[in-house]
Amino acid sequence: MKPTRTARLRRHVSPSNLIAVGAVLLAGCGVLSACGGSNDGNNVPGNTKPAFAGKVTVTRYDGVSDDLLTAGLGASGLASATAPAIANPTAPTAAELRRLAIYANYRALVDTAAKGGYGTLYGPNVDASGNVTQGSGMIAGTEYVTYSDDGTGQQNVVLLVQIPDSFDVNNPCIITATSSGSRGIYGAISTGEWGLKRKCAVAYTDKGTGAGPHDLATDTVALQDGTRTTRSAAGSNAHFAAPLTSSQLAAFNAATPNRLAFKHAHSQRNPEKDWGLFTLQAVQFAFWAINDKIAGTSGALVGSALPVRPDNTIVIASSISNGGGAAIAAAEQDTGGWIDGVAVGEPGLNLPPNTGVQVVRGGTTLPTTGKPLFDYVSFANVFRLCAASSASVATAPAQAFFTSLTTFPAGVQANRCAALKAAGLLTSTTAAAQADEALQKMRTYGWEPESDLVHASMSFYEIDPSVATTFGNALSRASVTDNLCGLSFAATDASFHPTAVSATALAQMAAVGNGIPPTSGVQLVNNNAQGGPTRSNQSVDSTGTRAANLDGALCLRNLLTGADAASQSLQAGIRQTLRTGNLQGKPALIVQGRNDALLPVNHGSRPYLGLNAKVEGGSSKLSYIEVMNAQHFDGFIDLVPGYDTLFVPLVLYEQRALDAMYANLKNGTPLPPSQVVRTTPRGGTPGAAPAINAANVPNFTSTPAAGDRISVSVSGGVATVSVPN
């Protein structure tokens, strides 16, 4: 176990233990076989590679032509609307895919518009102290990449460690950046940015998800670097191949042509149950890689102790969304003393039932809190499309898209409302009243009124059906051949029927996809649609109505309570993902936007604060920061007109949380108490909001006003989380 440490008692590396080792030495290629290539490190005595790690690829980036943070694009390149060029679009190189992945993932997670704060409040050219520099923000260093596998060749979780040349051996630090959503290995690059600027190594993992599909029609798969080959040629090196025999694949292709399998949905491993484990493995691999890099640079390690060890290194578990949930899972499961503190944004947290936690807002006890993700997202998948058409939110961003664009059939929201009424799920008799009723159901089930204006964009971009379908498959360990609830993944033609995915889209999908269709031209398909398999949101239901596949949504929802094998498997899968609330006394900061409509604060961060207080009592060191006028997708702020006028960037608060945690672990600076941060939206005209400034985004404080404090009390076995309006 790692000894208890304070800022005053930190142990540092003795110079006598090293041979001319320092931060400057990390800039060289040392004794590695090449500045870019595959090897298993330097075989340093005493620095044993973890047993779970396979072959290691080590690549050096000079910070000029290529780098760790921007892939050679610099701050301006990441902000450019023009994606990096691919010489041969149907056969991109590994280097081209890496550059494209960093570009796509950074922009998906961060608002890269100057008016939104990019380049002034945050971004590669803003240094660790918040100063705006004139540089490109490129960071030289080395990457170590491997698979974590259990011996089957089926797990193949990617682990990546970025070690900047500036890494300070005398003040070592590691930050985790587990991928968000279902993304690939660079799916938390915006979290890694903080660590690289702080001269920390960054430990990434894709946590058993990723964007490179198994194209079942051509039987081709992605490799670790995103390039593609046949399943037979890839063998155990495939990042993911659906576990099917040749005869099973042939039968499925004959009955269900042109489909694709994705790792999160179709690995049949319920990877979420191991997200904490994979995050811990990333940390362990990082320690090995750092010491290997030091040895490769200096030529040797001297002394009985490795220079970078758990007892002398600050380790912060971090990331956002599902990656943030993985960081919390890792901290709960950390029995080896690998993690010192936690700082996460908008984490995905599945809480157990009957926790004895209640949430009170403004003096009113909220009726529905602490549900697991599949529960509330399957609920939203039924009601949100209708709710978003309420006249009370008619001006919501993206609501106009339902009539101005052809993504959905005309009248689909009214159709969904009417179908809900016909199914006995609504009682109102007019479309307007049905929409209002559905919106109220969303509020009663845990969404705050501040999320109302986000429902339209969530619906238009099909976020609920995509999440419900992928997690439904994953949690129930469904095979792609099961076509769970009649749903599958395929590209579709102009008539919305399945067709072969384009060669270009497939070749680049590991880099630009998010791993959770709809993505990169791959759509959700309703196999049971009248008239044959059809893109789900355009399909005709069993009732003859174009209601965006309410049949499929109800099927997914019913898995929560059903008694059939698929339902029982899903319910067991959820139980494997539940958090305990026990952070083992580790200091922790959670930051989330009150307007979050994907992971509502009432189902994760707020009740987790109460559960932690109930479990840890006086040992708890968790603080929760709730940011007003902030929601889940910073990448939408410059994408969807109206987001810019309504919402501030949460990434800024995630970075501030990391600053606070580092100061706590390094210097003993107290963490801020739980509080609401009252920001000011930019306002103005949708799509043309004025530039943000520091006054819009005040920091959290060590002494919040009484009316801003979030408190927790435990009495009679019940934890009460009290949140101000």
Structural summary, described in words:
The active site is at 321 (charge relay system). It comes from Ralstonia pickettii (Burkholderia pickettii). This is D-(-)-3-hydroxybutyrate oligomer hydrolase. The protein is globular, with a radius of gyration of 25 Å. The protein starts with 35 loop residues before the first strand and ends with a strand. Helix 9 (373-387) packs antiparallel against helix 14 (463-475) and helix 9 runs antiparallel to helix 16. The chain has 725 residues and is an alpha/beta fold. The strands form five sheets. The protein has an eleven-stranded mixed sheet with strand order 1-2-3-4-6-5-11-12-19-20-21, with helices on both faces. Strands 14-13-23-22 form a four-stranded mixed sheet, covered by helices on one side. The protein has four domains: 1-61 and 140-229 and 268-339, no CATH class; 66-139, no CATH class; 357-371 and 580-723, no CATH class; 373-574, no CATH class.
